[in-house]
Amino acid sequence: MVNVTYIAADGTTTTVEGELFSNVMQTALDNDVAGIVGECGGSMMCATCHCYVDEAWQGKTGARNDGEDDMLDCAADEVKPTSRLSCQITLTPDLDGLVVHLPEAQY
Fold this sequence. Notes:
The protein is of the alpha+beta class. It has helices at residues 24-30, 58-61, 68-72, and strands spanning 2-7, 13-18, 50-53, 83-85, 98-101.
């Protein structure tokens, strides 16, 4: 299991356990974390799982995948250098304790 902490735009913090090799989006959905919608189910066809990787973790989550920038252009909230589609962040043992911040809106 891998712990992931989601910080909502209002500062509310939720820490949950995710399955190894699942992803940040699916972990949020499985644990009813508000702020992640995941309309396309993780097929990178929308931006409703947009998140901001905490700067302390940015180097460990890797670079954006091919096509991720195109989808982030459709994000409802501001795209920042730490923006990622949470469906594209695979939970590995190195990401235990990962912190992501959620935007105000996903629509």
